[in-house]
RNA sequence: AGAGGAGUGGCAGAGUGGUCGAUCGCGUUGGUCUUGAAAACCAAUGUACCGCGAGGUACCGGGGGUUCGAAUCCCUCCUCCUCUGCCA
């Protein structure tokens, strides 16, 4: 969430940022927020004064009791009931105000970076670069949902039987390819200096709030009522929350973590023809990279992450393009996001396989993730993360782009991990 | 899952209703001493909010309650330890 103090010092920046995101009436929103905070401060001051007086009296009663002046003490006690009522009322009011303030902070998205362009949606995203040749396929080529049947490597019907739509069963070489990607992606991340983490894939409410999935976006996550735990939609949640309520020394920066996890998303209402096959699933696998940086270095780190993910796509020999998302298409918590999309040759469309974002202090403010500078002053850190990479769409692109009349040719980097060169 | 015990500042560990935001120790930082170091000695050393400041307020696992006053008493939840049971 945004910092009220910062909104106060640069209200204009906040309003302009929200305009980029097409937020209705941003100025009113910001003014209401500041006014709520004013009220909060006022109440706080009043309450503190009443409490100070109460404390004073309580101390004096204590002193009198110790001197054995019981009667005088009883006299003083009479003064307390009104103060008590006052403090109770103020406390309730303050609590209410704080809740209102927090609620409205939760509803305001992050302020986009100055370089992020305005825009309504996906059509307005900026094309940064396009890399690689789109393959020319043999006649009779088919989308991956046919290929997986032909070679019997992924079974959606079985998934429906066991769980429901969107829960594929990987079989034989399909399963092995999953395992190959897992090891390949983690090995690459480690070479790049990311420390491997295996986090829990069920998280509590506090973790969901920390990274911004809660409140408001409950709909995306599977939730177990009996334990009040959520299945993670991405490893970002448990991995970033390792650093909830942490104060780091400046020398400990940057923190670079990588984690493989399954991810679970309800994706309610987003089904249709364009999400056939592996394009959109309720359960999928992903290696996620997470970074924590000094505010001065976070945008350099974002570029490095983008370069790193592109390196993976090059090694996989997949044609891709990089987009910088416009204000209207960017995630709620992000200040700047690059999407990497691979060309899926039989579907003839771009598939998003990675999204790398800088959240600046939006997450760290919720997480209370800070660092201590040389003068022992505490400041919020910047958090970043990105997919590196999400398996299903990579698999879809590999299957479609590398199909030939005699089978599917596996990219060279995956062969040592997969243990085979062809699916045929 | 059942029975019992426990959760206090970076660590260790006092404190069971009244000048306790919290003794002492270790650690860390600064200083004195020393050719240098160690030792010794002196001092500082939690977080957040309000305030220009002086200062004030809150926090002793979380939440609620009793009381003029709660780290201390009560309720509830969470976590850890021991024993019993179950299990990969």
UniProtKB/TrEMBL annotation:
Superkingdom to which the source organism belongs: Bacteria
Catalytic activity: tRNA(Sec) + L-serine + ATP = L-seryl-tRNA(Sec) + AMP + diphosphate + H(+); tRNA(Ser) + L-serine + ATP = L-seryl-tRNA(Ser) + AMP + diphosphate + H(+)
Record has Aminoacyl-tRNA synthetase as a keyword: yes
Record pathway: Aminoacyl-tRNA biosynthesis; selenocysteinyl-tRNA(Sec) biosynthesis; L-seryl-tRNA(Sec) from L-serine and tRNA(Sec): step 1/1
GO cellular component, one term: cytoplasm
Domain Aminoacyl-transfer RNA synthetases class-II family profile residues, every copy: 176-411
PROSITE patterns to which the protein is assigned, alphabetical: AA_TRNA_LIGASE_II (PS50862)
List of residues binding L-serine: 234, 265, 288, 385
Alphabetic keyword roster: Aminoacyl-tRNA synthetase, ATP-binding, Coiled coil, Cytoplasm, Ligase, Nucleotide-binding, Protein biosynthesis
Subcellular location(s) per record: Cytoplasm
Coiled-coil residue windows: 33-103
Top enzyme class: ligase
One GO MF term attached to the UniProt entry: ATP binding
Pfam families in the record: Seryl_tRNA_N, tRNA-synt_2b
EC id: 6.1.1.11
Family of the protein in this entry: Belongs to the class-II aminoacyl-tRNA synthetase family. Type-1 seryl-tRNA synthetase subfamily.
Protein known as: Serine--tRNA ligase
Native source species: Marivirga aurantiaca
Gene that encodes it: serS
């Amino acid at each position: 969430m945004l910092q009220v103090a910062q909104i106060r010092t640069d209200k204009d920046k906040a309003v302009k940022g929200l305009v980029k995101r097409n937020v209705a009436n941003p100025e009113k929103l910001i003014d209401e927020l500041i006014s709520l905070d004013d009220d909060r401060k006022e109440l706080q001051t009043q309450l503190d004064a009443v409490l100070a007086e109460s404390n004073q009296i309580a101390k004096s009663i204590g002193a009198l009791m110790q001197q054995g002046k019981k009667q005088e003490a009883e006299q003083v006690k009479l003064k307390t009931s009104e103060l008590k009522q006052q403090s109770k009322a103020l406390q309730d009011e303050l609590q209410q105000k704080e809740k209102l303030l927090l609620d409205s902070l939760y509803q305001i998205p992050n302020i986009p970076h100055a370089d992020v362009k305005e825009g309504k949606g996906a059509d307005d995203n900026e094309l940064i670069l396009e890399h690689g040749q789109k393959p020319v396929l043999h006649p009779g080529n088919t989308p991956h949902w046919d290929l997986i049947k032909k070679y019997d490597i992924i079974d959606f019907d079985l998934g429906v039987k066991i769980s429901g739509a969107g829960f594929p069963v990987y079989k034989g070489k399909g399963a092995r390819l999953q395992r190959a990607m897992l090891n390949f992606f983690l090995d690459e991340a480690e070479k790049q200096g990311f420390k491997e983490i295996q986090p829990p894939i069920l998280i509590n409410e506090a973790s969901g709030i920390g990274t911004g999935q809660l409140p408001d976006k409950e709909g995306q996550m599977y939730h177990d009522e009996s334990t009040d735990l959520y299945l993670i939609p991405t490893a970002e949640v448990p991995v970033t929350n390792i650093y909830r309520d942490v104060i780091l020394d400046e020398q400990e920066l940057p923190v670079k973590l990588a984690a493989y996890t399954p991810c679970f998303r309800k994706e309610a209402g987003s089904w249709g023809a364009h999400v056939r096959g592996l394009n959109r699933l309720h359960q999928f696998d992903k290696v996620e990279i997470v970074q924590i940086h000094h505010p001065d270095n976070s945008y350099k780190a974002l570029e490095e992450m983008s370069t790193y993910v592109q390196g993976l796509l090059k090694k996989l020999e997949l044609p891709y393009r990089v987009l910088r998302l416009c204000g209207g298409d960017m995630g709620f918590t992000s200040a700047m996001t690059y999407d990497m999309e691979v060309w899926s040759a039989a579907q003839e469309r771009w598939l998003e396989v990675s999204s790398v974002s800088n959240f600046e202090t939006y997450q760290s403010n919720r997480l209370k993730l800070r660092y201590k500078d040389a003068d022992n002053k505490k400041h919020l850190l910047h958090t970043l993360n990105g997919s590196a990479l999400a398996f299903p769409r990579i698999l879809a692109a590999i299957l479609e782009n590398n199909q030939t009349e005699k089978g599917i040719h596996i990219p060279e980097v995956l062969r040592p991990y997969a243990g085979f060169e062809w699916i045929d």
